[in-house]
Amino acid sequence: MSNDETRVAEATPAGNGAAASPKRRHRSVLVQMETPNLVPERDLGKMPVLQAEHLGIDFGGLTAVDDFNIAMGRTEISGLIGPNGAGKTTIFNLLTNVYRPTRGTVLLDGYDTAGKSVVEVNKMGIARTFQNIRLFNKMTVEENVLVGLGNSMSTHLFTDIFRLPKHWKQEAEFHDKAMDLLGIFNMQSLARERAGNLPYGAQRRLEILRALATNPKVLLLDEPAAGMNPAETEELMENIEKIRDDFQIAILLIEHDMSFVMGICEVIGVLDYGRIIAKGTPEEIQNDPKVIEAYLGKQGVK
Ligand SMILES: Nc1ncnc2c1ncn2[C@@H]1O[C@H](COP(=O)(O)OP(=O)(O)OP(=O)(O)O)[C@@H](O)[C@H]1O
Ligand SMILES: [Mg+2]
């Protein structure tokens, strides 16, 4: 067995049928960096796409997140897990400048995001979905994706107002791009439906596509499988890997569904009371007594 295969075997959670499928295997070797981080070997030698150092935020007397550090490989799929209220969503809010950090630094591709607006951070290359789905419910499915694509729209207000040919051409291009994106989840036939009329699982998928439409380097997914049935969850796992492969982006996800996290993530960080208490491969995390005590034991997962 090669080193790669050994690592793959180790990273496959015992007794998890879904994780044992060939598609689910991680072909990477994880490498310890100088800072206490792991990155897939394929991303080594390239600048980490996302770095956070000593990131933290206090809300009055409550330290919601403290000393959070990450260096994400450019095509890494990572997970953030932990009990309710541990600070997971707050980390996404810090990484996207929804909250201004009390301390610490966030670098995207080496550029400091301090002082940037949420929209500017998105344009720099971080896109996200929300724990509580945020779509434009009265707009169509396609229009929701177009909002994401609009991030890169260059149509000048003038041409927009006078409907000049440049605008028509761009409209057709954007329609094609939106339909391509909808194709990732086989949602083209739903393009003209109102987003608010979609079933819950489809709304979650649409939110991912809208985020992806902004052409990110890093995609943050806050509980993407929440409310999905097992078949939808299984399909989502495959599609997240496909998105990573096709778009060559990094994905950081928060999820309480452990077979999902263990099956798809190469690196997992465990948060408890705002602090990372463990970081490692799915196998390392599942066997870490601190993690079992703080979280997994309570989840009924080994
Ligand atoms: N704007 C805010 N003002 C005050 N406290 C906040 C704010 N946002 C988050 N918190 C607090 O920070 C802590 C972490 O919350 P957060 O939503 O990040 O948890 P979480 O890990 O995402 O939990 P869950 O799994 O339930 O989604 C909680 O105690 C929460 O009440
Ligand atoms: Mg949350």
Plain-language structure description:
The chain is α/β, with parallel strands linked by helices and 302 residues long. It folds into two domains: 3-125 and 216-299, Rossmann fold; 135-215, no CATH class. 38% of the residues lie in helices and 22% in strands. The chain contains eleven helices and twelve strands. It has helices at 3-11, 88-95, 118-124, 141-149, 157-162, 165-184, 200-213, 230-247, 258-264, 282-286, 289-299; strands spanning 30-32, 38-40, 50-59, 62-72, 77-81, 103-108, 111-112, 126-128, 218-222, 250-254, 267-272, 275-280. It has a six-stranded mixed beta sheet, sandwiched between helices. Strand 6 (103-108) and strand 7 form a beta hairpin. The longest helix has 20 residues, at 165-184. Mean pLDDT is 85; it is low at 1-27. Residues 88-89, 131 line the site of magnesium ion (MG).
